Amino acid sequence: MSTSRKVAIVTGASQGIGAGLVQAFRDRDYFVVANSRNIKPSNDPDILTVAGDIGDRAVAERIVSEGLTRFGRIDTLVNNAGVFLAKPFTQYTPQDYASTLAVNVDGFFHVTQAALSQMEKQGSGHVVSITTSLVDHAIDGVPSVLASLTKGGLNAATRSLAIEYAKRGIRVNAVSPGVIRTPMHAPETHEWLAALHPTGRLGEIDEVVQAVLYLESAGFVTGEILHVDGGQSAGH
């Protein structure tokens, strides 16, 4: 299928920020390829769902290939899928380590590689990764080494890819959130989590979505790590 309408891939798309991104891109008349481990088929013919573990290279390649078959192009990839485990460093298990790297690093690598291969052929494209403000500002009481190790790597890869692909019409950026009000966080933790931000509140899903949409429309911005964190990265 050949089309002039843009196509966005969103990983981790079944709930929270990912679901918000799917809706936002549809509101802007994009076709969307939505992935998560157990995502259900959509009633919207302009949304293609691809279920599977993003850490599996075959799944990542299928997301791109099925998107191309259905919609004919890939314009935007949002690497939203992610795992966060808050444990003291010495209590992480080998399984914790492996599962976090599988989603946060392997998932990023495989689907980004497949998407960029297509974007190169088109001569245009945009990759956005969702990372974490903890990379820049560790917080006492929130042990987060695996998040910093993996998402910090994505920040560095974002800058590197931005330079590598700058002359090929492809931009690469990241959004670095603080704690966002999603189903991941139980309501009884919200007050404590809100206090971790200088602004004294949690972020909202739409605030991360709007940051992604800004980057999507900002043609002169690449290699940017955009903080949406209530001032966390600036300090306390």
TrEMBL record:
It holds the Pfam family adh_short_C2. SUPFAM superfamilies: NAD(P)-binding Rossmann-fold domains (SSF51735). Keywords: Oxidoreductase. It comes from the Bacteria. Gene3D superfamilies: NAD(P)-binding Rossmann-like Domain. InterPro entries: NAD(P)-bd_dom_sf, SDR_fam. The keyword Cytoplasm does not apply. The keyword Oxidoreductase applies. Coiled coil: none annotated. Belongs to the short-chain dehydrogenases/reductases (SDR) family. This is SDR family oxidoreductase. It comes from Lysobacter panacisoli. The lineage of its organism: Bacteria, Pseudomonadati, Pseudomonadota, Gammaproteobacteria, Lysobacterales.
